[in-house]
């Protein structure tokens, strides 16, 4: 790809975004209702949200680097980077949030059959089906492979029974990608990876209210749910390979939370708004300034680490356990960021529903970040992985 | 440009790794210390750095150097750090070369630097903490200037052939402008260099300038506009010191992880204890993040990016934080043996402290980052 072609791509992309990104989609995301999730039910989307998602999907730009055959944009890494930069330049919102894009998609691209790819990937790219993830169980949290939800063979089908927990947005999802036990004699070698419709008979969900006052998570129950074997991804009893691959992508996604958002810095802007600048242009609270500055050192350095990690992933030279390091560092950093956001906001940030606290989004987000180091594998589990797989320290 | 070393840079790293480990391992530092060497480094070693071409990394090909960049200089510095090798590489081949670049002084001093005959020292700090201030006075006198004032923490200052001196020709100490940079012969009349041995066994001088007379052609760049070459020197020095710190922290971490794998207590290797595994894994994470910051700063400097200052401060602060953790954890996890002079880990702790202070500590750079970000 020559620089001239890339320059031309940038010019065209800029013009297309200017024309197709509605002004409402260039405002910062303030609360959960501003985030667009695809799905069968799109009645809650505003016209601007719907138009932005559909326009991007028509170009394949909800998943710019996926192949065109599966609804992607077929862009090269250099083109994808240009698209991200141009979107950031106009502060365009993410057109579509989706576990299908960030987690299931990459796993299907690697392990799915051609038919599974054609059936599911395009719908993910267009935001037509909303997915949830059935991993954790009441007795299988950090020790994920001890899961018990069973799938008994019955002709061309499996009969699934059991319970999942911490299923994000299960009550709003259309389909689930789910780990089930197909062999009780082997722990990691007895797990299979199934896809099925949440509208299947025998599936029920119950929301779990969190300390943030929100309820993104659910308990999910399976009572004799019939799932065709054709919906199994990869081989029977080899679902753990798929699960691990997908967890790498999940950790990568969660680690991204440690990065400052593009355009403005809410932490710094917030602190300036609350305590003000002195005559030298410094934050009027010197200790708060020092805390923020030292945090920003780590946050900026982690941004550079993320850039390096992505470059290494693309070149196939990242250590396979490196996502654990990214997840660990990014989530711990994000918790620190929100502690500082709350400290900067003072009593304004304590208000649970007022405009001063953006409708409560600051304290709710602060409380939400406390789960970052638990979900997707706790910080302690990530440290175990780093110690054993990267530092090669001995087992007890 | 991807944020990892390309093939040529990887080859340079392998060469530098072997060379430094063979010619200047920690035992080299220990022997210089034990015989109370008065230079603080080996001139012979400096000559072999030159023979390897390392001293010309940042010097253009048309001037006899390799015409490479800060990434490559950082590669060599990381190995210097890993082996705690006493060397004037950072002050001479990196900081001084950057200050002299493009000036008539380049033709005068680069040949000596390339051959390993010339050692340069940086007279920039005036207090116990590095600051962006210059009070040392340079008054016009006859055909040139007369320098009066004091500098400290001048590494190799008592044996250097050339001193790069930041002086004030206009305004007052805290002003950013009004600075002039001079290339001064260490043997100039009125100049006294008093060397002090530092914690890490290196030597740094307190220097007094008592009406030191220099010709007008000692000025590097323009009169009153020394901020430009001084900033170039500081960016290169800070980035280079970050790379050396990264090597110190990485070397200490490797020693510690190695020790965790061999030391037995309670009948098992201590590396199997989760309490230690988690701390080692945390340390690894901090070092990885610091590594990315160092490479990013060097790449942005090489690209002439306007984000370079920002990245340089991130790198210097982050490597100070990560390496300090590395040496502290190193001594702690080694237990009692880590406190002995006979064992090397303590040498890492001492060098880390000196490098953390050089060109501004973590607080200085966090403050700078905040200022650059407008708060």
TrEMBL record, chain A:
Disordered: annotated segments: 25-44
As cofactor, the record names:
FAD
Record's GO cellular component terms: plasma membrane
Regions of compositional bias (Basic and acidic residues) in chain numbering: 25-35
Q: What range(s) does the Acyl-CoA oxidase/dehydrogenase middle domain occupy?
A: 132-225
Q: Which residues form the Acyl-CoA dehydrogenase/oxidase C-terminal domain?
A: 237-391
Top-level taxon of the source organism: Bacteria
Q: Which family does it belong to?
A: Belongs to the acyl-CoA dehydrogenase family.
Task: Write down what this protein is called.
Answer: Acyl-CoA dehydrogenase family protein
Q: State the organism of origin.
A: Sphingomonas aliaeris
Automatic annotation (TrEMBL), chain B:
Domain Acyl-CoA dehydrogenase/oxidase N-terminal: residue ranges = 6-116
Q: Which cofactor does it need?
A: FAD
- Could you tell me which Gene3D superfamilies the record lists for this protein? Acyl-CoA dehydrogenase/oxidase, N-terminal domain, Butyryl-CoA Dehydrogenase, subunit A, domain 2, Butyryl-CoA Dehydrogenase, subunit A, domain 3
Keywords carried by this UniProt record:
FAD, Flavoprotein, Oxidoreductase
Where in this chain does the record put each Acyl-CoA dehydrogenase/oxidase C-terminal domain?
Answer: 233-366
Q: Which residues form the Acyl-CoA oxidase/dehydrogenase middle domain?
A: 136-197
MF terms from GO for this chain are: acyl-CoA dehydrogenase activity; flavin adenine dinucleotide binding
Q: Which domain of life is it from?
A: Bacteria
- What protein family is recorded? Belongs to the acyl-CoA dehydrogenase family.
Q: What is this protein called?
A: Acyl-CoA dehydrogenase
